[in-house]
Design brief:
The protein is mainly alpha-helical. It is built from eleven helices and no strands. The chain has a domain of about 180 residues: MetI-like fold (Orthogonal Bundle). Helix 1 packs across helix 11 and helix 6 crosses helix 8.
Length: about 280
């Protein structure tokens, strides 16, 4: 049974990571062919940095991912704070249910709905070129928001309310209590929400396809347009670089989260020791 369980887990990981390994391996293929690996080369990485259109699409994707994830995390933190502090259980259930709807919706439904909304508002205010960078930013922030709330809200619920009450009793204002006591405690959830929003925005295609314009294209849209002809091997190099960067970010976040939790445990032990 142990062998079968290990074999099953290994097979699952092979299915998950085999496509990624293929992309990484063939990004170093000098011949630019998927049928054979002729030799190790950095040619396609040099070609990538000569492709101005691809770099512009990457710049647009990074701008959207960073900006939308930061906005979604800020709004999500305030929303999670409001939900956790509310004493009305019906309001809590309604707010949580409404925030989960965008995650349940298919991306194509969300994309079409947002496109109709933006075009409708543009028609009302008399703007012809409605779709573009700002509509994509609003759309990405919107679909990132529920994931930010989902990561941050449990941290508020796990927090000992006596810490907040003690800070208030010692003379802190509500704002000082939030920034000095509550925010450090929920920071792992904030970072997780930020990273999740960044990765979701970076690889989104369906929603971006409906709310984009020809003047502002993200990397997934740029790669999709190439499939009508042939995907350049420099895109494999770009995907490899993105995989490496995201892997480094995930490792850094996990290390920072583990360090933060260990510091929190040490503080709690010290507090318990002093009280005894």
């Amino acid at each position: 049974m142990k062998f079968l369980s290990k074999f099953y887990i290994g097979l699952i990981f092979l299915i998950l990571y085999a496509p990624i390994l293929v992309v990484i391996i063939f990004s170093f293929n000098s011949s630019g062919s998927l049928s054979s690996f002729s030799g190790f080369s950095l040619y396609w990485y040099r070609e990538l940095f000569r492709d101005g259109e691809a770099l512009k699409a990457l710049k647009n994707s990074l701008f959207l991912a960073v900006t939308s994830s930061v906005l979604a995390t800020l709004i999500g933190t305030l929303a999670a704070f409001s939900i956790s502090r509310s004493k009305n259980k019906y309001y809590k259930r309604l707010a949580e249910g409404v925030s989960n709807i965008p995650m349940m919706n298919p991306d194509i439904v969300t994309g079409v709905s947002m496109m109709l909304l933006f075009v409708g508002v543009g028609t009302i205010i008399g703007v012809s070129d409605t779709l573009g960078m700002w509509t994509m930013l609003m759309a990405h922030t919107t679909f990132n928001l529920p994931y930010a709330i989902l990561q941050i809200l449990p941290r508020f619920r796990q927090m000992d309310k006596s810490l907040t009450e003690a800070a208030l009793d010692l003379g802190c204002t509500p704002a000082q209590t939030f920034f000095r006591v509550e925010l450090p405690y929920i920071m792992p959830g904030v970072i997780s929400g930020l990273m999740m929003g960044f990765t979701l925005s970076l690889d989104d295609f369906v929603i971006s396809h409906f709310v984009s314009s020809p003047d502002f294209k993200t990397l997934p849209l740029y790669i999709y347009n190439q499939t009508a002809h042939e995907v350049k091997f420099s895109m494999y190099a770009l995907c490899t670089l993105m995989i490496v960067v995201i892997l480094i970010l995930l490792i850094a976040v996990n290390v920072a989260g583990s360090a933060g939790e260990s510091r929190q445990r040490k503080k709690e032990k010290k507090t318990t020791g002093v009280s005894k």
